[in-house]
């Protein structure tokens, strides 16, 4: 493959459909300097691109100052395979326009597994995104434009980063939450979301953390999850209690009470 003129990439896609289903695409002794317009291996300006398997990697002795895949427009879907740029000062995928959907496979890079500066990103269950162990980010989204329904993220500096904690909260898909993962794969719900979530972080359906149900006055009660913000209403489940327990000493009979509200 020869680098297209004036693009700084190895493969330039502007329209149509492109699917990489298996095999290995390797960058061997290929150097891309930082002053080119788009220093990337695959540059997507339009069309639809799917990565379903195989490997996209840089085995060069040189550093690649840019990214593995740059999305300026069109749509990228990664459903399998591996994108690995572990010896390059680069991002695995850089979304600056269009849309990228990561729903499987593994993305690993020295700087950012995935970097978002524009466009849109959706991450679903089955994706694993990793930044460098020393100073990398799994996902770095400066605008908080990503929507996360699943995935596992890790990086030496941060697993998931944006420029504010509100952005990181807003990136969660409806009904989802952040969890810290330990080495054994055990999940702990993240109750306090910061602008930089560290360690290994998973996104999964929220188990809901609520310390108070509010009675609606019509035989039901409602809570709002402190973590994901979802609101849920259900019927009260009443229990019979001796009236004397509630300061009605000397009176016969019972009262009914919902233990939650």
The helix/strand class is mainly beta
Q: What is the first-to-last residue Cα distance?
A: 67 Å
Taking Cα atoms only, what radius of gyration do you get, to the nearest Å? 24 Å
Determine the strand fraction and express it as a percent band: over 45%
Q: Could you report the average pLDDT, rounded to the nearest whole number?
A: 78
Global geometry: elongated
Q: Which spans of ≥5 residues are poorly predicted at pLDDT below 50?
A: 26-38
Q: How many distinct beta strands? A: 26
Concise account of the structure shown:
This protein is mostly beta strands.
Characterise this structure.
The protein is mainly β. The chain contains one helix and 26 strands. It has one helix at residues 165-170; strands at 9-13, 17-20, 24-27, 40-44, 48-51, 55-58, 67-71, 75-78, 82-85, 91-102, 106-109, 112-123, 128-130, 137-141, 146-148, 152-154, 158-161, 176-181, 187-189, 196-197, 200-205, 214-215, 220-224, 231-235, 239-242, 254-257. Strands 1, 2, 4, 5, 7, 8, 10, 12, 14, 15, 17 and 20 form a twelve-stranded mixed beta sheet that branches. A nine-stranded mixed beta sheet has the order 3-6-9-11-13-16-21-18-19, with no helix packed on it. Strand 23 and strand 24 form a beta hairpin. The radius of gyration is 24 Å and the shape is elongated. 36% of the residues are buried. Mean pLDDT is 78; it is low at 26-38.
């Amino acid at each position: 493959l020869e680098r297209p003129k004036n693009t700084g990439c190895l493969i330039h896609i502007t329209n149509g459909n492109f699917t990489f289903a298996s095999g290995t695409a390797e960058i061997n002794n290929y150097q891309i300097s930082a002053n080119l317009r788009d220093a990337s291996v695959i540059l997507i300006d339009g069309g639809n691109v799917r990565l379903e398997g195989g490997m996209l990697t840089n085995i060069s002795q040189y550093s690649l100052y840019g990214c593995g895949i740059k999305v300026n427009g069109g749509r990228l879907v990664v459903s399998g395979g591996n994108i690995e740029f572990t010896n390059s000062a680069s991002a695995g995928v850089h979304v600056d326009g269009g849309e990228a959907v990561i729903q499987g496979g593994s993305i690993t890079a020295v700087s950012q597994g995935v970097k978002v500066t524009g466009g849109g990103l959706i991450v679903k269950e089955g994706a694993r995104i990793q930044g460098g162990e020393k100073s990398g980010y799994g996902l770095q989204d400066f605008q908080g434009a990503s929507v996360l329904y699943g995935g596992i993220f890790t990086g030496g500096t941060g697993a998931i980063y944006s420029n504010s904690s509100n952005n990181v909260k807003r990136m969660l898909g409806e009904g989802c939450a952040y969890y810290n993962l330990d080495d054994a794969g055990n999940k702990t719900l993240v109750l306090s979301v910061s602008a930089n979530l560290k360690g290994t972080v998973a996104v999964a359906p929220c188990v809901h953390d609520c310390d108070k149900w509010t009675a609606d006055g019509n035989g039901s009660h409602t809570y709002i999850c402190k973590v994901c913000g979802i609101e849920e209403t259900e019927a009260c489940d009443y229990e019979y209690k001796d009236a004397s327990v509630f300061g009605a000493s000397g009176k016969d009979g019972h009262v009914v009470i919902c233990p939650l509200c």
